[in-house]
């Protein structure tokens, strides 16, 4: 996965249909454990709700539940909204307070879909891009030039000042080798960066991505 879209913060919305209240919550999540913890939090906050329908999409798994609603009328439409918005690493929970009027299958699909769509409309979307993190030391005499290069080709995640300067730079996967060559040319081969783990960085921070 070279990049994915998620939301920056939790988003909420409410939708009413024939006296039933549908409260939708979206949350960025990193793992199944994180998603389950979010679901538990919403359940504890709304213990008297009739249903706690949920769906989530992670990098390696997808899950949804109707939580007692007729099969395919709740979790599936919630999941469909997340997929239509191309979201990943996000969980949705829609709480229903039953209003005494049956909505029927089509009414449930519409209500759950509208609720989570409204929450998605209220959310701030963010794109994360696959990067390689490089770590290297340099002298203060080269710091300005190296910072300029790092900002031109990636994103400086951290700088630590001691006798020398330690930089951690995230570079898009597709330009990682070009960055290494530019770094070698600039330093005359004196700087040998250590390649750290792969990571994701906000695309807006990456020069390669901002012009798309």
User: Structurally, how many domains make up the residues?
Assistant: 2
Instruction: Sum up the overall morphology in one term.
Output: elongated
**Rg calc:** 23 Å
How many strands in all? Answer: 10
The description of the largest β-sheet is: 5 strands, antiparallel
- Helical content stands at 25-40%
Strand and helix order:
EEEHEEHEHEHEEHEH
Sum up the structure in keywords.
single chain, 212 residues, alpha+beta, Ribosomal Protein S5, domain 2, Alpha-Beta Plaits, 2 domains, 6 helices, 10 strands
Characterize this entry briefly.
With 212 residues, the protein is an alpha+beta fold. The chain has six helices and ten strands; from the N terminus they run βββαββαβαβαββαβα.
Walkthrough of the structure:
By secondary structure, the protein is an alpha+beta fold. It has two domains: 3-123, 2-Layer Sandwich (Ribosomal Protein S5, domain 2); 128-210, Alpha-Beta Plaits. The chain has six helices and ten strands. The chain has helices spanning 32-45, 75-84, 104-122, 143-153, 176-187, 207-210, and strands spanning 3-7, 11-17, 20-28, 51-57, 62-65, 90-97, 125-138, 155-161, 165-172, 194-202. The strands form two sheets. Strands 1, 7, 8, 9 and 10 form a five-stranded antiparallel beta sheet that branches. Helix 2 packs parallel to helix 3 and helix 4 (143-153) runs antiparallel to helix 5. The longest helix has 19 residues, at 104-122. It is elongated and about 75 Å long. The mean pLDDT is 93.
């Amino acid at each position: 996965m070279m990049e994915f879209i998620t939301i920056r913060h939790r988003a909420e919305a409410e939708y009413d249909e024939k006296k039933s209240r549908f409260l939708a919550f979206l949350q960025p999540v990193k793992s199944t454990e994180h998603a389950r913890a979010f679901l538990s939090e919403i359940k504890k906050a709304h213990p008297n709700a009739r249903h706690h329908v949920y769906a989530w999409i992670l990098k390696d798994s997808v899950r949804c539940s109707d939580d007692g609603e007729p099969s395919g009328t709740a979790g599936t439409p919630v999941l469909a909204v997340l997929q239509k918005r191309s979201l990943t690493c996000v969980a949705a929970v829609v709480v229903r307070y039953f209003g005494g009027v049956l909505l029927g299958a089509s009414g449930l699909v519409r209500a759950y879909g509208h609720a989570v769509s409204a929450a998605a409309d209220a959310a701030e979307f963010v794109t994360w891009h696959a990067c390689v993190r490089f770590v290297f030391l340099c002298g203060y005499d080269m710091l300005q030039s190296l910072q300029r290069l790092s900002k031109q080709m990636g994103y400086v995640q951290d700088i630590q000042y001691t006798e020398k300067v330690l930089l951690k730079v995230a570079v898009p996967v597709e330009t990682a080798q070009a960055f290494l060559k530019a770094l070698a040319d600039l330093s005359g081969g004196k700087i040998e960066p250590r390649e750290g783990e792969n990571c994701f960085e906000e695309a807006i921070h990456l020069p390669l991505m901002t012009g798309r």
